Amino acid sequence: MAKLNEQQLEQLAIELDGVKAKAMKEVGSVDERYIKNIIRLQRTLEIAGRISIVLGFISLYFWGVGVLLLGASKILDNMEIGHNVLHGQYDWMNDPTINSQTFEWDIACSSESWKRVHNYEHHTYTNIVGKDRDFGYGLLRLSDDFSWRLRNLWQFVTYLVLSSLFQWGIAFHEMAGERVFFGKRKAGRESHVDIERLKKVFYSKSTRQILKDYVIFPALAGPFFVMVLLGNIAANLIRNFWTSTIIFCGHFPTEVYTFTEKECENESRGHWYYRQILGSANLTGPKWFHILTGHLSCQVEHHLFPEVPAHRYVAMSKEVQVIAAKYGIAYNTGSFFRQYASVLQRVIYFSFPVGKVTGKKAALYPRF
Amino acid sequence: MLNDLTNKLSLTLFNNDTFKAYFSPFSTKPVAVLMGDMFAAKVVAIKPENNDMYSLTLAISGKVDAQSFSFLPGQYVELQVKQNGSYVKRPFTISSPLAQLQQDKTITLTIKKQSEGRITPWLANAVTKGELLAISPAKGDFVLDACLPEKTSQQVKQEVLFIAGGSGITPFHSLLLSHVMDYPHINFTLLYYARTNQHVLHDDLALLEIEQANFSLKLLQSERDGHCCSAHLNGITTDLNNTAVYICGPNSMMDNTQALLLEMGLAQDAIHLEQFGLASFNNVDVASERNVSFTTTNRHVVVSEDNQQTLLVLAEDNYVPAKYGCRIGICQECKCKKVSGVVYNSQTKTYSDTGEEDIQACISVPVTDVVINL
Questions:
Q1: Of A32, A76, A166, B128, which one's alpha carbon is 20 to 30 angstroms from that of A176?
Q2: Domain edge (last residue) among B107, B135, B163
Q3: What does the CA dihedral A295, B301, B333, B348 come to, rounded to 10 degrees?
Q4: What's B246's DSSP letter?
């Protein structure tokens, strides 16, 4: 792929700014109705799910349906509602219950910590090895920028464990980076928040989540304590696997680019846009699929326009693809199964002590 | 205590501060009403006053007493409306007398369509009868000093002079209809400047003048009579030094009238001004470029002559999420921390300190490089 020069990048920025401005101009009551409908759906699913799980004492089918409903409610809450609201996509509504400064979601990670690590770090330094801690989460070797260690040999298992405990991985993410409980802090690492605050927020949010799903709701079911406990564990597992899978599909399929800090020093707006397209991957699918992914199925558009209400990404992606084609920028998109298979391929490939990727493989794991 | 407990439970079970908040998307009420932050107000009448002013009469749901909704004549409320999916607040003066609230639980807001305004011209046609809006508690200190308890005992004859310019009539309409009858020992005079045939709300006042000996109304036509001058003032009172003066109107009119009164020897503390509207900040030196950095979102904006804006507008133009409310420096909703730099407060016409302090983004204009926590 031929790299764009500064003049082309400048043009690219103007065109993409245009796509964004056009979408933002249309934002209004359509988006308000949309997000409120999704929130109403989520609340309905949650309440129906929790009731249905208790009814499992009549028939296990109720339990199964309840788990699915509650899982779906948690997925909606985390992805289409929480993630997008926390990006400030609906702040313009001036509704204190749907605002990035006040929203709290049904997941172990506090929204406060999430906003720092995700909105700021990940979205600013997308796929810059060493700056974007989401690239491998400090656990997995996903490119040859990292040297191989023995523990990478079983990183496929590590990956499965991370997926099943994904909400805890995220909750612990910021503190792990700050080496709050163990290990040595990297020299020169700047902290945005003091350690005591980190601990306090972590403990209060995770305690509440544990109390809720594993103590209070089961206790409310009285004699059916264990049934509700297991149901809630199952629903959380479903959510964990789904969110982890979708998020991995956003940045780790083959042919997604990685960057070095040097390439991105003082980068222009055009270069930032350029990097967001090259460092993200889309999933194709029907409307319900896009909603359940929180429109992270349009990871490219989300990274280009994180403040635009996400349900607009599908339409915007058509314009973005035209622009990408015009500039010869690789636009990574494919079906869920194709993309996910290539994520697994990456996790497994880099678990072996392969050195620098060369030859045919270099096209699969490109570095900018 | 019980409240704290249920709120804690709600936070734990549903990640919402209250159970109400969790269920709020199912309600059609304005969310601020549902949360108890504002009062529910139902539109009962919309009446045009002239080409660019209209009156909105709102029925207050719930009690109207000092514990719940009440107001002092001269005060304003913030009216919250939803425009294209977005809640917007604007302050409007209550033009109706206190008696109207006590009798039929309604208040009237008389609203001027701001030229090029985003809300006021739109609102006139957008609201419908029966629609539920939200209003804040009454605010503001443009109220009659003489009504304060410690002063009512004074039995000396007092002079109160109201000077209104155009839409600045609204607080005086409420003040006069509420107070003239109750305070026979006060002589009220209203100088009302407006273009010919544009003296809105003057019918009730004309009637009041006929009925009450302690009130005189002077309608002045700006085309014919010009601005407020010493001749107008000398014509109405012999003892300016014993007069409390209240002025409400366009900023330039208030500035000029205040200067005139001071020149004529009136003490500063006898003059009351209703500060409304965004003062201009064109006198800031705009020649040099300044950098505004938003720390939370890590955005950097260069401000020069052609994008001279308040910090709030700069934030919004650059997709920095910023909370806001009234946008004219009243409600404090947009308060945020300035880490460093000097900002010009376009309302108080003062420059800030250089260090860390809370500022209102909607009325602060960056003068030097500014770092702000947004």
A1: A76
A2: B135
A3: -170
A4: E
Q: Which residues fall within 8 angstroms of residue B40, CB to CB, at 6 or more apart?
A: B29, B30, B33, B60, B61, B62, B132, B133, B134
Q: Are residues B311 and B327 in the same domain?
A: yes
Is residue B78 located within the same domain as residue B130?
yes
> Which ipTM did the prediction report?
0.89
pTM for this predicted structure:
0.85
Q: Is A267 on the interface with B (CB under 8 A)?
A: no
Residue A262 placed within a domain: no
Q: Is residue B281 part of a domain?
A: no
Domain annotation covers residue B285: no
- Measure the CA–CA gap between B90 and B109, rounded to whole angstroms: 11
B320: domain CATH number is 3.10.20.30
Mean pLDDT value of segment A324-347: 96
A191 touches chain B (CB under 8 A): no
Q: How far apart are CA A230 and CA B159, in angstroms?
A: 78
A43 touches chain B (CB under 8 A): yes
Q: Is pLDDT above 90 for A264?
A: no
Residue B279 lies in a domain: no
CA B21, chain centre distance (Å): 29
More confident residue, A185 or A244: A244
Which of B16, B86, B298 shows the shortest C-beta gap to A93? B86
Paired tokens of A75: 């997925």
Q: B85–A208: do the CB atoms touch at under 8 Å?
A: no
What confidence tier does A324 reach under pLDDT thresholds 50, 70, 90? very high
Say how far apart CA B78 and CA B111 lie, in whole Å.
12
Task: Provide the shortest C-alpha distance from residue B370 to chain A (in Å).
Answer: 19
Answer yes or no: is pLDDT of B213 > 50. yes
Same domain, B163 and B252: yes
Query: In this prediction, what percent of chain B has a pLDDT beyond 90?
Result: 52
Number of structural domains chain B divides into: 4
- What distance in Å separates the CA atoms of residue A332 and residue A299, rounded to the nearest whole number? 10
Give the minimum alpha-carbon distance from A39 to chain B in angstroms, rounded to a whole number.
Answer: 7
Same domain (yes/no): B19, B47: no
DSSP-assigned beta bridge partners for residue B158: B186
Would A43 be classed as within a structural domain? yes
CB-CB neighbors (< 8 A) of A211 in chain B: 12
Range of the domain at A94: 34-106+213-238
Tell me whether A105 touches chain B (CB under 8 Å).
yes
A100 touches chain B (CB under 8 A): yes
Q: What is the pLDDT of residue B241?
A: 76
Answer yes or no: do B56 and B13 share one domain. Answer: no
Chain B residue with the nearest C-alpha to that of A204 = B12
Give me the number of domains chain A comprises: 1
Smallest Cα distance from A295 to chain B, Å: 20
Question: What domain range is B1 assigned to?
Answer: 1-36
Does residue A183 contact residue A177 with C-beta atoms inside 8 Å?
no
User: Number of Cβ pairs closer than 8 Å across A and B?
Assistant: 68
B32, B85, B319: residue with CB nearest A93: B85
> Which residues does chain A have within 8 Å of residue B297's beta carbon, measured at their own beta carbons?
119-120
Domain co-membership, B53 together with B25 = no
Q: CATH no. for residue B102?
A: 2.40.30.10
Partners of A208 on chain B (C-beta within 8 Å) are: 11-12, 15
- Residue B283, in any domain of the structure: no
Angle at B303 between CA B301 and CA B309, to 5 degrees: 105
Per CB-CB distance under 8 Å, the chain A contacts of B15 are 104-106, 208
Q: What SS3 string covers A71-111?
A: HHHHHHHHHHHHHHHHCCCCHHHCCHHHCCCCCCCCCCCCH
What chain A residue is nearest to B20 in terms of C-alpha separation? Answer: A97
Does residue A91 belong to any structural domain of this protein? yes
For residue A231, give the amino acid letter. G
Q: What is the pLDDT of residue A48?
A: 98
Are residues B73 and B168 located together in one domain of the fold? no
